[in-house]
Write a structure and sequence with these properties.
The chain is of the alpha+beta class and 299 residues long. It is built from nine helices and 14 strands. The two termini are 18 Å apart. Bound molecules: pyridoxal-5'-phosphate (PLP). Residues 47, 193, 196-198, 217, 219-222, 255-257 line the site of pyridoxal-5'-phosphate (PLP).
């Protein structure tokens, strides 16, 4: 079995016969240098956790993929086709404890109006240490107000686009400041999200996150953690959170597919409390109880 698997998804509406997707060699060139995903970052993606061969929150990821496509005026993705392509990639992967599968759709080669689509599955590194030891974060101004989603929808703040150069630059800035990760803050002073994660904090018994109306990505992990917490009798809510409220919280985490719940152990150089038992419970839920029924190998 291959260590990684690449599936090309057929998205040309003019081709109606033949296989809807194709397994190809991930080590061979597959993409045109004229693809707008490469030249403009003009496309969308999803990154999905796969634990013991089971994709987590696949339906939520597919819904967000469709939402992102609508925000970018891309052709509407067919969730069934993408679902089957994801399972095809996972089912050809080595059996590993944790993997990630990435779905990508770009606007395609300039001038052709045919999107390019692929699914890539690969094993994940062991995140055990970061999940228990946590990360040191710095808060960085994103430069957008908290109402940017309504005032300037063309900034695509709620879409998971391929344009992640700013997010990568923010992580390099964090490293320059001797930190591991970032929490973006709106220009009017509210906590938003990390470059690849949602923010969660505990105040007393309640779990709190910024709301999706703040111009941030609607996190599938955050959504599932809230659902799990409610079942445990833990109160949850979204609210506008200032940086001082984040710093004064009883515990805080970065949540994402792949890394899951990573505790924040310092904020702007000041040590932050880590809730070891709750971190363990959340990660145990995310790893062991979040999966969907075992995927069938597509015919
Ligand atoms: N916010 C941003 C900007 C992200 O890139 C991500 C994940 O990559 C998230 C939040 C968390 O989303 P999810 O929990 O669905 O992985």
């Amino acid at each position: 079995m291959p260590r990684t698997c690449l599936v090309l998804v057929r998205l040309d509406p003019a081709t109606t016969s033949g296989e809807p997707y194709r397994i190809v060699d991930p080590h061979e060139p597959q993409l045109s240098v004229l693809d707008l995903g490469v030249t403009r970052g003009d496309g969308i993606f999803e990154s999905i956790s796969v634990v013991s061969g089971i994709p987590h929150a696949l339906e939520a990821h597919l819904r967000r993929f469709v939402r992102s496509a609508r925000l970018l005026d891309l052709p509407e993705p067919d969730p069934l086709l993408w679902h089957r392509s994801v399972l095809a990639a996972i089912n050809r992967l080595d059996p590993v404890p944790e993997a990630a599968v990435k779905m990508v759709m770009t606007r395609g080669v300039e001038g052709q109006s045919i999107p390019t689509g692929w699914v890539y599955a690969a094993p994940l590194p062991d995140f055990g240490q970061v999940r228990s030891e946590g990360v040191r974060i710095v808060t960085l101004d994103r430069g957008y107000r908290s109402d940017v989603a309504t005032t300037s929808p063309w900034l695509l703040t709620g879409a998971k686009t391929l344009s992640y150069a700013v997010n990568r630059a923010a992580l390099r800035e964090a490293a320059r400041r001797d930190a591991d990760d970032v929490v973006f803050v709106s220009s009017d002073g509210f906590v938003l999200e990390g470059p690849t994660s949602s923010v969660l904090l505990r105040r007393g018994s309640a779990l709190i996150s910024p709301g999706k109306d703040m111009g941030i990505l609607e996190g599938t992990t955050q959504g599932d953690v809230f659902e799990w917490a409610s079942k445990q009798g833990i109160p949850t809510r979204t609210e506008m959170i200032t940086v001082s409220e984040l710093a004064a919280s009883d515990a805080a985490w970065l949540l994402s597919s792949g890394r899951h719940a990573v505790p924040i152990r310092s904020v702007n150089g000041v040590p932050h409390p880590v809730d070891v038992p709750l971190t363990g419970q959340i990660n145990s839920f995310l790893l062991h109880d979040r999966g969907q029924p075992s995927p069938q190998r597509p015919q």
